[in-house]
Amino acid sequence: ATMREDRINKTKTVCTYCGVGCSFEVWTKDREILKVQPTSDAPVNGISTCVKGKFGWDFVNSEERLTKPLIRKGDKFYEATWEEALTLMADKFTELKDKEGSDSLGFIASSKCTNEENYLFQKLARSVFGTNNIDNCSRYCQTPASAGLMRTVGIGGDSGTMEDIATSDLVIVVGANPTESHPVLATRVKRAHKLHGQKLIVSDLRKNELADRADLHIHPEPGSDLVWISAVTKYILDQGWEAKEFLENRVNNVEEFKQSLEKFTLEYAEKHAGLSKETLIQTAEMIRDAEGTCILWAMGVTQHMGGTDTSTAIANLLLVTGNFGKPGAGAYPLRGHNNVQGASDFGTMPNFLPGYEPVEKDEVRSRYEQAWGTELPKYPGLNNHQIVEAIMDGNVKGMYLFGEEMGLVDSNINYVEEAFEKLDFFVVQDIFFSKTAQYADVVLPAAPSLEKEGTFTNTERRIQRFYQVMDPLDDCKPDWQIFQEFANKMGANWDYSHPSDIMDEVAKLAPVFAGVSYDRMEGWDSQVWPVKPNGESTPLLYEERFKFLDGKARLFPVDWTPPLQMGEEFDLHLNNGRLLEQFHEGNMTNKSEGINHKVSNPWLEVSHELAKERNLQSGSLVRLTSPYGKVKVRVLVTNRVTGNELYLPMNTTENEKAVNKLTSSYYDKDTHTPNYKETQVKMELLEKA
Ligand code: SF4
């Protein structure tokens, strides 16, 4: 930070919202945020920002911030000291651990918090409490994408950078809405499309803004992406358009894979994905004619019962066409939260230690056991979906959650709330008194990014530092400090004086972070993992090897899982997603005055056809009912959706409008990611416009 005479501080920070990872200067005077100033030094965004990064910061000064630890007494909470709160936590967690065993505890980490904080939290769960029951919210979004990539190319991250996307010949976006969810990335795609002749295909149920501009908008039947992607792959092979040399030299399992595609004919795709042969052939031809193809995808792919398989099918298509390991090509799962990539990278997963090393591997575990001086659990723990089930079954009794609004973002929230009520002891650590905190026994006041230091990892695997802008409010503390104090209450003897000490420890332990250090990420500098011991980044993966022992990728046969059908009376398909101005459930953005006045409450998007048939106008109030719950919401008649497909933004903190009152408890069969996008409802008119 540079101090000027007029006491304006200019501090580099990294956006706390989406996974694009924009960085910029925040200009402040004491706690007052004067402006956000982008600079050409920012590696991802240069001088661009979006409305959230530019105006979404006054939540840090919100009246509603938590300022003191709270302890429940009956139906009320009273303000407590840190000493009191941490002592109570140590007593209760120790009691549960001793009486019920280590695995009676569950730990839910935060994709909004730093890499260092996530690392410490998994260290706390594993080394202090002896459990692998730890997970983060990528379980709700992108775990299927990572799993699909691990099966095929070996690393669960973007294969290149946003520069590769911007310079690619052909960008295919599947089940994502970058204009609203990853705005600065979308701007780069739009520019490349408009000025540099980049071709664009968008596959989405909804005609989002990018689909409107695309050379081709594919509108498949809900939940049928795997079908059309596999059909295009088969067609390319049948025509002999595959990358023959690449397949021969760098890919295993080609023959078995070819056989697995047998049923995915154009006719099969016509029938099950509802797409014409011409559309499928045009897609195949565009891939054939492109020097390099990038495929970007998000929740429209992953939040299905076959989400991992569809992600795998995307990687298969890219392998068949030789689109890995060269600039301007590759697989790009678009990460949602600012640090959804980093939370998983740094080990808050039930099956992986930091850097995606399996907990079952003796060699890996013993490296950590030596460093941490304690024995570690040998088997994968429960993921967050399984933790909720285990609470219902009485097997998990204590939970520690930070920076995560499970009570609003989990699928089928009525069920999740029931689980919270069953917990013997529940700690929630956040910056606001969240919906989830209502169920807690202890609530701890944490510090948002502007009040601490740390690093975030964006969707490109780029690790970036941000600096402290202001002191923590009142009694608030950075999450990493809270974990350290709690661990030490439990007798752990941790001694980190700064987040850089934590990063140094990670660099020693996790090979993919070997050369990561705060010194090398000073100011606007960043590092992209895997980072070699000499500090060299790897922005483009797989140039020489895929991450398997023999260095070769694997084509991985997958089959189609048709989407969940809730029953005939639920005759409308309900899709959900984001609004540009709000972030996820909105618990930060809707406390930012700079943003909140720009948007109103979520509206249910209804097609013109359906509106006519049901006699609805924009403004009509309707009730949506699924087998799991009901919501009341107002209608917006629009041509963004068609036929019997509805769309409800997920950004709300109002329970009566929360889309997850309607979603089910079914999930992706490989990763337990909820099938948020497989929801059907019936609709009743309550009040005319
Ligand atoms: Fe922040 Fe994402 Fe907007 Fe960039 S695009 S300013 S990272 S919300």
UniProtKB/TrEMBL annotation:
<feature type="domain" description="4Fe-4S Mo/W bis-MGD-type">
    <location>
        <begin position="8"/>
        <end position="64"/>
    </location>
</feature>
<keyword id="KW-0411">Iron-sulfur</keyword>
<protein>
    <submittedName>
        <fullName>Formate dehydrogenase subunit alpha</fullName>
    </submittedName>
</protein>
<keyword id="KW-0001">2Fe-2S</keyword>
<keyword id="KW-0408">Iron</keyword>
<keyword id="KW-0004">4Fe-4S</keyword>
<keyword id="KW-0560">Oxidoreductase</keyword>
<keyword id="KW-0677">Repeat</keyword>
<keyword id="KW-0500">Molybdenum</keyword>
<comment type="similarity">
    <text>In the C-terminal section; belongs to the prokaryotic molybdopterin-containing oxidoreductase family.</text>
</comment>
<keyword id="KW-0479">Metal-binding</keyword>
